[in-house]
Amino acid sequence: MSIGMIILVALALLILFGVMERVLDRMALTDKQALILVAAVFIGGLLPDLALGPVTINPGGALIPIGVCIYLFFHAGTNKERGRALLSALLTAASVYAIGRFFPAEPETMPFDPLILYGLCGGLIAWILGRSRRSAFIAGILGVTLADVMTSIMLWTRGIQQTLHLGSAGALDAMVISGLTAVLLCELFGEIMERIASKSSSDAPLKGGNHA
Predict the structure, then answer these.
(1) Phi and psi at residue 50, in whole multiples of 5°?
(2) How does residue 186 score in pLDDT terms, banded at 50, 70 and 90?
(3) Rounded to an integer, what distance in angstroms lies between the CA atom of residue 174 and that of residue 105?
(4) Contacts 24+ apart (CB under 8 A), 109-114
(5) Which end of the chain has less neighbouring CB within 10 Å, N or C?
(6) Mean pLDDT, range 32-56, rounded to an integer
(7) Average pLDDT, whole number, for the chain?
(8) Helix/strand/coil (H, E, C) string of the chain?
(9) What are 76-124's pLDDT values in tens digits?
(10) Could you give the strand order of the β-sheet that contains 55-57, starting from the edge strand earlier in sequence?
């Protein structure tokens, strides 16, 4: 079982135990909806890819995650958030593509799978740029996907015919890691900032009393 599949199983367990309730609320998803989506991605990832000319699409690794991004995009609070999500996705894609240029063409020669690094970097960049959980998730998922598209387009323009695989094999792992990393970082630092703001507001009357 790949690391992406393992993460999906762990995520399903966290949802079942109610650990992800707050995060899901802010992403306009119920626990039941999230479980169905996680199961769909897991099962879809085991299904054969759909061939569309020079492109293959995996149901669990591409169709369903992109569908979730579309859902979250239209449930974003403001047009500003939607614009930020799209901009973040493009910048994340460019960053992941640039990172990929530093690695050798044969990933087998590396001590670790570069797709894992792409996922972590994609998630980190998406969190920094996306700010909200919805925007970060969209940027994390679409960023990794668009980076694959950019790579194939560059190869095609050079006359190198290569099939573009969306969401298959390690690409699913990178996408899961990227999206989850982006959302969890938003949740972690969002919680820290809320605690700091809460502490500052509670200390304010005491400071005022001391000055009086």
Answers:
(1) -95, 125
(2) confident
(3) 17
(4) 113/170, 113/173
(5) C
(6) 91
(7) 81
(8) CCHHHHHHHHHHHHHHCCCCHHHHHHCCCCHHHHHHHHHHHHHHHHCCCEEECCEEECHHHHHHHHHHHHHHHHCCCCHHHHHHHHHHHHHHHHHHHHHHCCCCCCHHHCCCCHHHHHHHHHHHHHHHHHCCHHHHHHHHHHHHHHHHHHHHHHHHHCCCCCCEEECCCHHHHHHHHHHHHHHHHHHHHHHHHHHHHHHHHHHHHHHHHHHC
(9) 778 888 888 888 889 888 888 887 777 655 555 555 566 667 777 777 8
(10) 50-52, 55-57, 164-166
- Interhelix angle 133-157/170-211, rounded to 10 degrees, is 140
CA diameter of the chain: 77
Extract the tokens encoding 150: 């950019």
Crossing angle of helices 64-74 and 31-46, rounded to 10°: 150
Helix, strand, or coil (residue 102): coil
Contact between 182 and 127 under an 8 Å Cβ cutoff? The reply is: yes
The amino acid that residue 87 corresponds to is L
> What pLDDT shows up at residue 203?
63
Task: Determine how many CB atoms are found less than 10 A away from the CB of residue 115.
Answer: 23
> pTM for the whole thing?
0.80
One-letter amino acid of 191 = E
129-179: per-residue pLDDT in tens? 766 788 888 888 888 889 889 888 888 888 888 888 888 767 788 888 888
Burial class (CB in 10 A: 0-12, 13-18, 19+), 167: buried
